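Suppose you are handed only these lines of text.
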Amino acid sequence: MPPESRADDASRFRAPIGTYDILPPESERWIAVTETFAHRASRAGFDFVMTPMFEHREVFDRVGASTEIVRKEIYEFEDKGGRKIALRPDGTAPVVRSFVQHRPPIPWNVWYLAPHFRYERPQKGRYRQFWQLGVESLGVDDPEVDVEVVALAHGFYRDLGLSRFTLVLNSMGDAGTRERYVDVLRGYYAKHGDALGAEFEERVAQNPLRLFDAKRDDWLEVIENAPQITEYLSDDAQEHFERVQEGLHALGIRYELDPRLVRGLDYYTRTTFEFQSQSIDSAQNAIGGGGRYDLLAEEMGGPPTPGIGFAVGIDRVLLSCDAEGVLRDVVPRADVFVVNGLGEQAARQVTLLVMELRENGLRTERAYGDRSVKSQWKLADRSGAAYGVMLGRAEAERDAVAVKDLRSGEQVEVPHEALLAWLQQRQEAGGTDT
Ligand code: HAM
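From them, the structure of the protein bound to histidyl-adenosine monophosphate can be written out as follows.
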C-alpha cells in the first residue's frame, strides 16, 4: 500500500478537522450547561424547539449574502433529488422558517440546543461543528422584551458562576438604516481610504461593515474615524434603544455601547448585543450574541412579525468556565457500590439488589466476573461511591448485608429489608451526595 493511502486511512478514522468528540467526564459538563440554560429559559416562558439539521439553501440567504458565514463557510450540497441543501450555520433562520411554516400563536418563545456548521479556519474556540444554546422570541417589539432576552443570557452566565465578561450593546436602526449607513461608509472610505490599497477597496465594495473587524494596523485610523451607525437612527429606533438601556440599568446589568458592533449576520435591526469573555483569547472571545430581526419573518414569506433572540456557543462558554475555574467537578459519583462476597454463583443475587437500588433512585455500581472481595472493595473506593454494600456469608445467615461508609471506613450490619430505607435516609441527609 503506498504511504499516502495509509495516511488517508489514518485520517479517515479520526474526527474531521474542526470537529471533536465530547467524552465523559467532559460530557457531564455539557449536560450541566444545558440544564442550567433549560431551567432559566423555561422560567422565562420559553419552550424547547427542534428543527432539522439541514434546510433548503435559500433559508440562509437572508443570514447575509455578503457575510463570510454564507459566502464562504456554508456546508452545502445537492441531494439525490437535485435539491440545494445546507447544513445550518445559524439557528435563527431555521426557527423563523419554522414559525412562518406553522404560524403558531404569538408571542412564540422557543429555546434550542443544536449543532451548527461553518467551514471556518479551526482554532481553539472556533470549530466547524459547534454547539449553540439559544432562544428566539417572535411577535413582540416592546423594548421590555429586549431587556428580558438580554437578562436571560446574562443570568445564564451568572448561574454558571462566570463573572469576567462584558455585555456590548448597539442598535442597527430600522429598515433601511443599514443600507443608508453602508452608503455613507462607502462615501467616507472613497474619500479617506483611497491610499489604503486594492484589498481595502475590495472589502469596501463587498461589505464595508466587516471592516470594523479588520485587524490591520495601517487601516486602523481611517476605520476608527468612520461615521457611526448610531448617528443615523430614526427617532423611533433611538427611543427603543434608550428604553432598552434604561431597562438594563434598572436591572443592574452593566453594558458598554459599541457603535462598531455590527455582528456577522445581515438580518439584524435595532438592538444587537454580544457577550465577550475577558478570560479567553480575544479572537474567539464572543461567548454569545444576538439581536432583533424585525423583518426576517416577512422576508421569508410570513406575516410581518418582529423577533429577537440570542445564541451562546457552548464550546466557548466551557473554555471561559475553565479560565475562570468554575463548573468543575460536575461528574455525578455513585451512591452505592455493591460487593459480592458470596462468590460467582451469587452474581444474579447482586443483579437483583443492584436493580432494586437503581429503581429506587440510587446510582449504583458493581463489579463483574470472578473478582476477589479485596479487588471489589478497591473498585468501590475508586468509584467514588459514598457506601459499599457487601453480600457476605456471615451476614447472609442473618438475612443482612454489611454496609461500609467508604470515606470513614466505618462498617455496620443492616437487615436486608431495611437496606433501601437506610440508604435513602442517608441520601436525603446528604450522606451519599458527593
Ligand atoms: P453568532 O454570533 O454567529 O450568532 O453565533 C453565536 C455564538 O455562537 C457566538 O457568540 C459564539 O459563542 C458561538 N460560535 C459562533 N461560531 C462559532 C464557531 N465556529 N465555533 C465555536 N463557537 C462559535 C448567531 O448565530 C445568531 N443566530 C444568534 C442570534 C439568535 N441572533 C438572534 N437570535
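What can we learn from it? The chain has two domains: 3-174+234-324, 336-428. Residues 90-92, 118, 120, 125-127, 130, 132, 134, 136, 264-265, 286-291, 309-313, 315-316 surround histidyl-adenosine monophosphate (CB under 6 Å).
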